[in-house]
Design goal:
Blueprint lengths: L1 E2 L2 H7 L2 E2 L14 H12 L25 H6 L1 H7 L15 H21 L4
Antiparallel strand pairs: 1-2
Helix pairs in contact: 2-5
Length: 121
């Protein structure tokens, strides 16, 4: 079975893994049980439509993660900017390497699947 794992492999290609795929986590990672909390803790201080421009720390006003639809639309950008090897977001640091790995698991499994279902893949 093939599965894309992590941001580096997500863009470099897929790695061979056994049947215990990274996307087989129980319970499955969802926006409700993981994504929303991660975004609120590490991203939405600057990347929320509710944050006025002077308080966004130069975050583009068009790049917001305060809804799941917005995360789906920006999933590739989030993945690249939070690359666990050399993350550029959040600029002040924050998430541990392990938290970033879980973020990328969520992005490459649940978010990618939902994007495909919406025809955004």
């Amino acid at each position: 079975m093939r599965a894309c794992i992590g941001v580096v492999l997500l863009f470099a290609g897929c790695a061979e893994v056994d049947s215990d795929s990274a996307c087989d986590r129980e319970p499955t990672l969802t926006y409700e049980n993981f994504g929303q909390g991660f975004m609120d803790q590490y991203c939405n201080g600057c990347h929320s439509s509710l944050v006025p421009a002077p308080y966004r720390n130069d975050a583009p006003e068009s790049v917001n993660f305060d809804t799941y639809a917005a995360v789906i639309a920006q999933r590739e950008r989030i993945s690249v900017r939070t690359d666990s090897l050399e993350p550029t977001m959040p600029p002040g640091g924050g998430p541990t390497t392990e938290e970033l790995e879980v973020l990328h698991e969520w992005l490459s499994c649940a978010v990618a699947e939902d994007a495909a279902a919406l025809g955004e893949e």
